[in-house]
Amino acid sequence: MAALKPPIYSVAIMPIWVGSAIAYAQVGAMDVEILLVFLGAAVCLLAWVNLSNDVFDAQTGVDKNKLHSLVNLTGKPAQVFWVGNAFLALGLAGILWLSWRQGDPTVLLLVLLACGLGYAYQGPPLRLGYQGLGEILCFLSFGPLAVLAAHYSQSRTWSLPALAASVVVGIATSLILFCSHFHQVEDDRAAGKRSPVVRLGTRRSARLVPWICGSVFGLLLLFVGLGIFPAWTLLGCAGIPSAVRLSRLLGTYHDQPQRISHSKFIAVGLHFWLGLFLGLGFILSRLG
Hints:
Strand content: under 5%
Helix content: over 70%
Largest sheet: none
Distance between the termini: 41 Å
Oligomer: single chain
Order of helices and strands: HHHHHHHHHHHHH
């Protein structure tokens, strides 16, 4: 279960939920069938990313001490790789169906771009995550590309609130990846993976975490103040307790891998509660 990481799949669900909720707030309707297919496709595509990354990391040796790697658990990298590709095919099939039904390739193109960035993160020959660019790719894929694709699938239009929400969701998603580096700094450094935490060191990286969290909720307040978001979206502040817990944990134990190995799951909690209530806030603004 640690290798499969069930909680992490909220990372795929929340951008689709938020984008669809904003579309509902604007047009007053939601195609549930499209929503469900998109959610299923997003989960499949994230499964592909996770499984293929396990295989690519096994090739570089960065995961040699990672007990919850599926490649390490099974000893069958080829099988893990092809199971991942099966999830990729299934996810893209869902998006193809959606685009065919709407007679519009826009969503498909956005998702294909997101998949390309997902591959570039760890896949050869680029392996951009090893150059410290993973957080940027994560922001783009799970922020603007995912949220705007979901919004377009429901409304067939673009909007400023959807773009603004994609920035908030993207930062929260990148924070999860950022926190995942803390407990594996030595393995990353040995394998030549120059993650932001390797580059900055754990102490300075930990000092950044409260600022990253603050930017998420600061943007939420700013967008409400500017009238881009309805006041109901302040419910997204439900993620603040997770932000406080995360900041305190890493601030205190940043250099003790065993005590912070779960920090990314606290960041997942922040992302989940923020996304859940951000989308709900848009829906309540319509119903109200």
